[in-house]
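B., you asked whether I could sanity-check this one before it goes into the benchmark set. Here's the sequence:
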Amino acid sequence: MVVKTIQKFMTKDGVRLDISGAVPENARTCLIVWPCMGGAVQMYRVPVEKFTDQGCACILYNPRGHGRSEGELEIQTALNDLDEILQENVPSAIPLVIVGHSAGANAGLQFGVRCLPPKQFVLIAPVLDSRESLFYMYQRKTIEEFVNILCAYVQDDALVRKVLVDDKWLDADLWKARHYRHLLDRVHARMRIGTFLERLFIPGHNAFAQLERFSAQTRIFMAGEDTWYPAATTRRLADKYGIPVETLPEAQNHFFTGAWDSMWTKILNLILLPG
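And here's what the prediction gave me:
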């Protein structure tokens, strides 16, 4: 079987993206993997060859600011970049299966609305509302996990930690009055921290409507314990829209530690189902 390999990608505006992929000739499906915020697809150990052996193309996508991709994350730009990657590398007639983890699940649903509607969505520990996620983490006192990921992008994290010490910064009026975007953008970092936070959380991204729209094509997998997003919200929406939900007890946390091997087996089996 002839398989076209993809390593990195240059966008039309000259930004290098850290992506990889494989597209077998006569591919019947294309798997797209979108990582969590601040994550990288390499962390998921996708068994690409197992998928290509079954005629499934794979696009492992690190949006701008993720992995070794250059630039900053901005949702609309990330959607456009992925659309551009697919247009250049995957025949348009091939059905898409989007696997999104955490905030990547939210972004994947947005992609389905704004660009190419996929055949199937697999949402893993989905963060369906960005603001609800942070309020939940402040309540659970796990916000340090988010702050540590954010601070990995900066050299001096004192101001970032001071602003994010509690949830007051999520108030849009306070955010504007204290000029937090401008203050945090001046922190020496790989990206503009203030702009990043404002884009994602002021006023935030909610994918409830998209989840309803694609309910018939969606399956959700949850961890046994998740300190990033309330399981009650996910289950309530899944019940409301008739979406199958499966909890993987071996998934130790929001990042599905200990469960990725079994997760990819489940996803491959889903793709191979007729219909």
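One thing to flag: Residues 5 and 22 are 4 Å apart (CA to CA). Otherwise nothing jumped out at me.
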